[in-house]
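Continuing from the previous page of notes. For each protein in this section, the sequence appears first, followed by its structure tokens. Read the first protein now.
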Amino acid sequence: MGASISVDHDSFATEVIERSYEKPVLVDFFATWCGPCQMLKPILEKLVQEYDFVLAKVDIDQNPDLAQTYGVQGVPDVKVVVDGQVSEGFVGVLPESQLRQLLAQLNLKSVLDEALETIYTEASLGNVEKAKSLLEDLLQHHSKNPGVILEAANFYLEVGELETAEKLLEPIQEYEKEYFVPAKTLKALILFKRSASQPGGNHELDQQFRQAVQAVLEENYKLALQQFLAIVSQDRRYKDDGARKAMLAIFDILGDDHPLTKDYRKQLTRVLY
């Protein structure tokens, strides 16, 4: 975990330049009247709780000399200081994912990522109960972190606890754009995992449907879409329109821009109308 500090002209050399020889320093030049600064602040404060860097906050109105020295023309302006060298970071507000990429470029790793690596390592060694215990502890301390929730849902999906995974994903809303799409993907995979575990019936299309579901779980999406489309063509009412719904779920997994999504969405429309 890093440290968040306020810095002025008198402390800049010690708290920024000298400390940058120990760990990276992100200098956040901000102003209290700046709306984007207030948007960026909680994101940076959140990340400094996960990564081992120093967040040095400089109020440009209180320290105009520092702003001038480091070429600050608009705020927020974040500079990166490593080994005493001040370099350009970014101006404006970046999404959390891009900020994490920036920290990764500084060879910093989130303590949450390290904890998740430990959890998956334990699971891969067959210590599933220990992994679950570690994950539950992580969730308890980061219950409102969508990234942790997604990772936890994925873990429970992998170990077959589908209801737990589904419940974890419920709070993620559509306005949380960065997390809603992967949440939809996991929900789609839960759907297919659940379908794969259901006993076979006597309908003539049951075997084809199961084969299509298995193709999804093996990530053979083209074959799965071909088979589901064939089922839609034969019997739209089968499994309460299940084949069409399955195709839509695959589109969620692949994303709207994937070539298979574009192709089979058109084919599905032709079959339906």
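Done with the first. The second protein uses the same format. Note its length before scrolling.
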Amino acid sequence: MTYGGHPDQHHPQAPPGFGPPIPVPPSYGPPPPQQSAYGPPGPHGVPQPPLPAGPEFVAHDRHNSVIVDESGVALEIQGHTLEFPWAAISTVHFAPGPFGTVLMVAVAHPSGMLCECRIAARKQAVLQQWLAELGPVLHHYLANRPPAH
């Protein structure tokens, strides 16, 4: 360094982080077992498929979707996703839309905020199927969630 804190032009220094490689110690013992998407081996050494986490519901159209699973409710509205964990949900309302081919789903937050999503079904039969599937899935998660603090 020269007077005034300016770098000396005659003695260049290597930037920090450069230099000889740092030796890596060898690993000892057998490699860790690889985790499989399947459960532990069952009889005859064949891996068992994973247990289902719980019921799921998925409905979507070209612009909107609703997903209900063990993590909560996710609404996608025009490319924007809102995720609500079960602890942040007061209740969930759903109903058919006014023209018989729209599913309306509303998530109520404990603060009173209400978020609604509308999913267009191509046919009235699809809407009826969604309505029949959504009720039991919501009941499963809303009835079995831990009490609010």
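What the second structure shows: The longest helix spans residues 124-143. The radius of gyration is 28 Å. We return to this in next week's lecture.
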